[in-house]
Amino acid sequence: MSKYWSELASSLTPYIPGEQPQDKKVIKLNTNENPYPPSSHVLDAIKAASDSDLRLYPDPNCTTLRQTIAAYHGLREQQVFVGNGSDEILALAFAALFKSTSPISFPDITYSFYKVYAQLYNLRYELIPLDDEFNIPLDQIHRPNGGIIIPNPNAPTGKGIAVGRIEQLVAEHREQVVIIDEAYIDFGGESAVQLIKRYPNVLVVHTLSKSRSLAGLRVGVALGHEELIEGLNRVKNSFNSYTLDRLAIAGAVAAYQDEAHFIHHIQKVIHTRERTVAQLRTLGFKVIDSQANFVCMTHVEFEAETLYLALRERGILVRHFNESRIHNYLRVSIGTDSEMDSFIEALTQLLRV
Ligand SMILES: *Cc1c(COP(=O)(O)O)cnc(C)c1O
Q1: From the candidate CATH numbers 3.40.640.10, 3.40.50.2000, 3.90.1150.10, 3.40.50.720, the one assigned to the domain spanning 40-258
Q2: Which of 12, 155, 13 is nearest to 86 (CA)?
Q3: Shortest-distance atom of ligand 1 to CA 90
Q4: pLDDT given for residue 104 in this prediction
Q5: Chain CA centroid to CA 348, Å
Q6: Shortest CA distance to 41 belongs to which of 175, 224, 213?
Q7: For residue 174, how many other CB atoms are within 10 A of its CB?
């Protein structure tokens, strides 16, 4: 606390990101980054854009990038918004599209940033408790409502929702905006992108951080009806007109142009995930079926926190959340086959004691 802080700054409980150690030797399975490099086309495009034009501001509307993404999904440019990571887009969307007249809704076990944004904008929220199988009971969301945000697949469980269920949710809540946070959709989920053509109240949010190996570039995407995109632009342009720099725009365009690289590496991650899940179950872990690039697991005999600390000592970072319903679970990002072999080997030794 400082006497110089505003009432707002004093009132906040900020999000705590997973650690980013400077030591390159650690096996980093804690922030759901992609273990594979981005497309070489991305690196070439960024190098090509590193010229004296950096003296100029970037295109505030990111037109080339928005056109590229629109064509990729079969949408119109006016249905696409881009931002400095999807976290920024979510922050803008809470401000632009959620109302304070009724509480907003999101699951009790979910991406912990939602609560932080709700608090930042002083929005009341009602948590939707997951059932014992970690499904989100979408039919229990109240009406009226200030806005709904659901990640698909959910984090940190990795559980996906069928697009038919998402459509039902969107159709039942036409008076408010429903945000579907699809950060992990490319690893096996069913996207709601095509719903935006029929439902003006759904905003689908994507990121290049996970499936396109570009967490360091900071690019996120929102897809939705023109009116929703205009709302996002109103808030963005009251804050910072240039959220994406010239290099990020160039790199992101190239990322959407290398489909072969994208598909190849997603399939590798999915293959490694399935192999890892089978090995973990052999070791006695209960693993939630995952449609993401991470798994969420618990062991009947060994405390999650003990395993987290012991793995850490062996140079393997995973994520442990100190939250009541999942305190005995670990979230483990899927790395390369060789990283996962080291992880399984370390667990095998730890469980032998
Ligand atoms: C990683 C993640 C994001 C944020 O991604 P960035 O684009 O890197 O900001 C958003 N939502 C969920 C559920 C995530 O896991």
Answers
A1: 3.40.640.10
A2: 155
A3: 10
A4: 98
A5: 30
A6: 213
A7: 12
Q: Whose CA is nearest to atom 15 of ligand 1?
A: 183
Cα of 265 from ligand 1 centre, angstroms = 19
Give me ligand 1 centre to Cα 250, in Å. 21
Tell me, using a 6 A CB cutoff, whether residue 156 lines ligand 1.
no
Find out whether the beta carbon of 87 lies less than 6 Å from any atom of ligand 1: yes
Distance 183 CA to ligand 1 centre (A): 6
- What distance in angstroms lies between residue 33's CA and the mean position of ligand 1's atoms? 10
Q: How many CA atoms lie within 13 A of 75 on its CB side?
A: 27
Q: Which residues contact 270 (CB under 8 A, 6 or more apart)?
A: 187, 188
Supply φ then ψ for residue 65, to 5 degrees: -65, -45
| Residue 267 host element (H or E) | helix 259-282
Q: Do domains 7-37+260-352 and 40-258 have the same CATH topology?
A: no
85 C-alpha to ligand 1 centroid (Å): 7
Provide the angle, in degrees to the nearest 10, between the axes of the packed helices 40-49 and 246-257.
Answer: 150
Residue 22: its pLDDT value, please?
82
Ligand 1 near 209 CB (within 6 A): yes
Ligand 1 within 6 A of CB of 33 = no
CA–centroid distance, 152 to ligand 1, in Å, is 12
Q: What is the mean pLDDT of each run of 10 residues along the chain (353 residues)?
A: 93 87 88 97 98 98 98 98 98 98 97 95 96 95 94 97 97 97 98 98 98 98 98 97 98 98 98 98 97 97 96 96 91 98 97 83
Instruction: Kindly report the CATH number that applies to the domain delimited by 7-37+260-352.
Output: 3.90.1150.10
What are the backbone dihedrals phi and psi of residue 332, each rounded to the nearest 5 degrees, phi first?
-125, 120
d(CA 45, CA 252): 9
- Gap between the Cα atoms of 95 and 201, Å rounded: 15
Domain residue limits, the chain? 7-37+260-352, 40-258
Beta strands (DSSP E) in the chain are 27-28, 80-83, 104-107, 125-128, 148-151, 178-181, 202-207, 220-224, 285-287, 294-299, 316-317, 319-320, 330-333
